[in-house]
């Protein structure tokens, strides 16, 4: 076939199919790619979806190209074929592609770690990963999982053309060959869209360990650049660091959101402390004046806050899994963000300990007997006793005299907030609601259905639905009534389930929480009903009793030393230790 005036799709298909007749250099292919890809060009997303994402055949070809089994040497041979330029530059179309390709190189290279060693071929592979990642940004998990999506991907199988284990191994291979953390962002998206189909393979490969190590390499690279005198070099590294660190953090989100406690714990196995330290390291680098970043002060402030909230999620998970967590030194503003929440948790633990102590020495010896919503308990102790002593509208009883008014108000608000959170988690999660069931909507597709009464509990099939309905501890036959009532009074989709950030259902503005609370107050929701939701909701994310780990992973002290180096001698940048208070 003549090279003159070739179709753009021919460039792609001949290259992606590795046909012998393709003879285009990396720069030329980058130019062709720019005509389709909105990263970092000027095409708008709507145009991108219309022009590219509906072409499922082409995107499936990209996936098959990226995840075909090859040795490192075979990939290097593909790179080598794109290095010498033998394109007929007299052809105006091809000449224009080269011009575009040169522009892309100048824009993309600074985004890569170690851009000085990047080539047009590496840049092209990076852009292919960006292509599928942007496509997933515009897709919807539920429609993809049920095979109803009209745009790519049409089902989770589009993301695993050669199986889950191959997907993970090829991602690790590309991470060694391409200096772009976009690989890890895409990996997190695969976890989100494929769920139980890929989780075992990611966990078996200890994938998060590779991600954390890549993050540490990124931080080391940025730290070396910070100390260089050339401002242009520091500016380029600043651009790269912000984008690359965001991709690392995005993967960590996928290990924490919509996962059971057991799964999240397994994901960070071996890097429990390092993952927290890494985010603190990122904050030190982001705030170093010698490393200029893109965006204004508000943008950077929001960027830092996202890191801080991830630290809180990770620490909340980690501290429950160790008999003793070492003191973790944090960036000062990170400590300021998460310490108030941890202080509130410590207060609740102390209150719970007091109630347990009173229960331990009680002489009546009666057990807690669960009750139906609206009924008073016959004999209840500890946290249940506290809850039973008041109702939301304050018409009955009062909190124990040992609690101050401030503690009473805090306990009341926390109880309401916990109930809201669990209802929202149940609404937005994509896993089976049955305790410890490993199935997700991605692995069961259209069989995955909600309870027809409360429209909240999710089941992977009839067997789990029947199991939940007759569960000994929290039978859904009883919980369903309470769930339905609180959702109805809380105005469901219009208020309680309003979700500006579907990826994080726990995020719910305080002003909306207060509105839901007021609705529940006026609707006469009882304390028992709140407790019912809290106990049921806790089982949605629980995996049973987890063994306590005696000591953290090796190497965390090296990260600690690096934090000290980043802090320097400036008084306002000195790290603050987060002192562990074990669960009681």
Automatic annotation (TrEMBL):
InterPro entries the UniProt entry points to: Znf_MYND
Gene3D superfamilies: 6.10.140.2220
Entry keyword set: Metal-binding, Zinc, Zinc-finger
PROSITE patterns, per database record: ZF_MYND_2
Highest taxon of source: Eukaryota
Keyword Zinc-finger attached: yes
Span of domain MYND-type: 434-480
GO molecular function, one term: zinc ion binding
Segments for region (Disordered): 356-383
Protein name listed in UniProt: MYND-type domain-containing protein
Organism of provenance: Hebeloma cylindrosporum
Lineage, top ranks: Eukaryota, Fungi, Dikarya, Basidiomycota, Agaricomycotina
